[in-house]
Amino acid sequence: MTITRFVLNEQSKRPESRGDFTILLSHIVLGCKFVCSAVNKAGLAKLIGLAGETNIQGEEQKKLDVLSNDVFIKALISSGRTCILVSEEDEEATFVEPSLRGKYCVVFDPLDGSSNIDCGVSIGTIFGIYMVKDNHAPTLDDVLQPGKNMLAAGYCMYGSSCTLVLSTGSGVNGFTLDPSLGEFILTHPDIKIPKKGKIYSVNEGNAKNWDGPTTKYVEKCKFPTDGSSPKSLRYIGSMVADVHRTLLYGGIFLYPADKKSPNGKLRVLYEVFPMSFLMEQAGGQSFTGKQRALDLIPTKIHERSPIFLGSYDDVEEIKALYAAEQKNA
Ligand SMILES: O=P(O)(O)OC[C@H]1O[C@](O)(COP(=O)(O)O)[C@@H](O)[C@@H]1O
Ligand SMILES: [Mg+2]
Ligand SMILES: [Mg+2]
After folding, report:
1. Distance in Å, CA 182 to ligand 1 centroid
2. For residue 194, is it within any domain?
3. Weakly modelled stretches of the chain, pLDDT under 70
4. What is the extent of the structural domain holding 221?
5. Which of 86, 218, 238, 308 is the most buried (most CB within 10 A)?
6. What burial letters (b/e) apply to 77-115, b meaning 16+ CB within 10 Å?
């Protein structure tokens, strides 16, 4: 089944639906295909003129993350279904002009893991969608909403294959791009994350600055005291790729706060929320160190938060360590 057929099926389950969401999604899919094609050519950038290099005609070309941002902004505005766009690449939100305005707000990281571009490691696009409910003129308050109010979320991973993972609020499904057909095909129906995993994923280079619960948790992963086997460490440094592996194989992904970054590194609206939405929809959990991640109410569009997400039981363990610390404080 193609992603288009899948979304049309979803639409037919909601008789009130007028197809606006289907159109919006088809424009997101188009953006993903475009960026996938650019990423595949990144290694040839110098020859063909892409991605921040000077091409053989001596022309300066756009960097891949700037190019990806332009692609998504144009694709989303031309859908005629969006009103506010928040991108990691743009300091300010984009308010769509009234003639092209629709009811959806899209928050996105057009190219996540961009430090991995030059060595050909998997990177991706992350997105979340909110809806403006009544017909008021959209304001920033329409996106400064807790993640649980998102209507849909997903990511596209540009790796050994191009995989789009999507949730519209009733489970998680994965689609792989067939390059010869130019279509995303349903390859991972109804993804459920294993209840407990054997992998932890964190940048251990920051360990000297971690707080007590994170330090204890990672110590337990390496030197378990309950007779279980140690967990394996896997860390790519591309959130999309690290979360994708966590979703399929189980385990936990951590980007905690540390002394240097008290709010962690990852951005609430377009990294933490979409990935937390997918995790919960797949049966996992997502926690900030203080609360359920999807309950967080952001106060600015580029806000950051610590994040622990993945298999239900693994996240439960880190929650217990934070609860114990609070009790002892
Ligand atoms: O290099 P660090 O500190 O481990 O950070 C890795 C994290 O930073 C990110 O690359 C940030 O995303 P961007 O590339 O979109 O800025 C995440 O993908 C990844 O999880
Ligand atoms: Mg990112
Ligand atoms: Mg980015």
Report:
1. 29
2. no
3. 45-62
4. 199-328
5. 308
6. bebebbbbbbbbbeeebbebeeeebbbbbbbbbbbbbbe
Q: Which ligand is nearest to the CA of 110?
A: 3
> Which residue bears the tokens 């950038």?
45
Pairwise CA distance, residues 311 & 286, whole Å: 9
Other CB atoms within a 10 A radius of the CB of residue 22 amount to: 15
Looking from the CA of residue 266, the nearest atom of ligand 1 is: 11
Domain boundary among 134, 158, 188: 188
193 in a structural domain = no
Nearest ligand to the CA atom of 238: 1
pTM for the whole structure: 0.94
- pLDDT tens digits, one per residue of 199-248: 999 999 999 999 999 999 999 999 999 999 999 999 999 999 999 999 99
| Burial class of residue 182, CB neighbours in 10 A (0-12, 13-18, 19+) | exposed
